[in-house]
Design brief:
The chain is of the alpha/beta class and 229 residues long. It folds into two domains: 1-33, no CATH class; 38-219, Hexapeptide repeat proteins (UDP N-Acetylglucosamine Acyltransferase, domain 1). It has three helices and 24 strands. The radius of gyration is 19 Å and the shape is globular.
């Protein structure tokens, strides 16, 4: 009986949940019976409108969220007036304190069922960031599809932003803790990048790469854990 009453409580408040002030209060009340952090992913999976933590901040006019998306505590999604579209696919998870920003020339797409763990930074300026389906992005990863000028004789803050091209992660990519991905990089389907690596050049599908800069150490084999197709 108690469980049914708690579920009814959540059902009622989730009808009003959303990113505005009233919706944040409703979300807080709906989540009250649930433990914090990842326990609240269940709310996103249960309700098609997904779950946006009351402490998350979302600013922008061209932000498209799919069904059952999870946006955790402290997440920031910021779209400048000159930024392109930000699109989150169905069942995407953005965990605690991840920051997404989109400005001049940039846009961002995250495919369905991709999970981005806490404290990641996705900064879509000058070029696109495209992340495929079912990717797993560990904490503290960073994506920068642009480079900052460093010419002598000019203050750093006056230097132009340039790019070698978009960042593209194909489906089922796994990035370990603290991986940095730079402009012009494509990471192929099913590739794994080890913790702390800096990816400066494209990687083919189905390999394992580590290091600064990231280098291929071997191909994935039948002995490795299969990734979903």
């Amino acid at each position: 009986m108690r469980q049914k009453l708690l579920q009814l409580w959540t059902d009622v408040w989730m009808r009003w949940a959303g990113p505005d002030r009233r919706g944040k209060v409703a979300t807080w009340l709906a989540a009250w019976p649930y433990a914090p952090y990842k326990a609240r992913v269940a709310l996103a999976h249960r309700y098609a409108q997904g779950y946006i933590a009351p402490s998350a901040q979302i600013s922008g006019r061209r932000i498209k969220r799919g069904r059952h998306t999870f946006i955790g505590d402290g997440v920031v999604i910021y779209q400048r007036h000159d930024g392109g579209q930000i699109e989150l696919g169905d069942f995407v998870e953005l965990h605690r304190d991840t920051i997404i920003e989109c400005g001049r020339g940039g846009s961002l797409t995250i495919g369905e069922r991709t999970g981005i763990q806490p404290h990641c930074q996705l900064s879509a300026y000058v070029e696109q960031i495209i992340i495929g389906r079912r990717c797993q992005i560990a904490p503290q990863c960073a994506f920068y599809p642009y480079d900052h000028g460093t010419a002598a004789g000019q203050p750093i803050h006056n230097q132009p932003l340039t790019s070698r091209g978009p960042i593209v992660l194909e489906d089922d990519v796994w990035l370990g803790y603290g991986v940095v991905v730079l402009s012009g990089v494509t990471i192929g389907t099913g590739t794994v990048v080890g913790a702390g690596s800096v990816v400066t050049r494209s990687l083919p599908a189905g390999v394992i790469a580590v290091g600064v800069p990231a280098r291929i150490i071997r191909e994935r084999t039948a002995q490795d854990i299969d990734y979903p197709r």
